[in-house]
Structure prediction request, 252 residues.
Amino acid sequence: MVNDQEKIVSSKYIRNRTITSFALFFLLIVAGLFSWRWLTHQPEDNSVPRPLRAVLNGNEKFFTNFIYSPSNVSRTYSPTYAAPKVRVNGDDGMGEDFDVTAWKLQVVRSPGDTLFISLDEIKSLPKTDITFDFKCIEGWSQVTHWAGVKFSDFVKKYNLTSECAMQYVGLNTPDKKYYVGIDTRSILQPQTILCYEMNGKPLPMNQGYPLRLIIPVKYGIKHLKRIGTIFFSNSKPKDYWYERGYDYYAGL
Ligand SMILES: Nc1nc2c(c(=O)[nH]1)N[C@H]1C(S)=C(S)[C@@H](COP(=O)(O)O)O[C@H]1N2
Ligand SMILES: [Mo]
Prediction:
């Protein structure tokens, strides 16, 4: 008895199906190879083929418009969880020829209007500390403990509210060899600090003495060590790792 569900098929039918499947399989491989060739031969935008950069930029728009909220905070830990031995990673813009004694933080309010702020002045502002899981795009992370002044408090104290209406904040090392750009909303998030202490002690030289950025909502690439200048802009400030193919937003 033949079941209703069963179908008698001829060997010719099976052969045709097999040939079609193989032809399709082969065509897809060829299409894949051609697409890959096309993609890798596209002009680059900041070290990434343009179509891929368009996807990264699209992700950034999506996150900044729909997902980002200043109330999204990074998880914090008790300082007892902080690593005593903190990893040192990246020394661009941290050359030996740095005159610590002459250092002042420069805040460019507008071209020709720069504030020069000493470390003592920064230390006189309300101090906050944070212990969080510091994440590097290289794939490591470490719970670390930092202290300094909230960027948002700093903005209030130095009347930078109107400058913060601009979309981006740029930061450079004094020698301008390392530089980052950060969307203003993320830098104003309450966990972002201008940091001068690590594990309760002044920042070690290789960790950014006298002042570094700590911004837990971003990957390590944005936590610029040894801040020289801060400025504001409506266009994306130059960004070291962005130029080398990374995502500009670099959010977590
Ligand atoms: N000036 C400067 N800041 C920098 C870097 C750098 O090369 N130069 N590297 C960044 C990267 S990729 C990471 S992961 C963190 C590492 O901070 P740490 O050395 O305190 O661990 O610093 C960031 N800030
Ligand atoms: Mo990093």
User: Anything to note?
Assistant: The domain at 55-244 is CATH 3.90.420.10 (Sulfite Oxidase; Chain A, domain 2). The two ends are 63 Å apart (CA to CA).
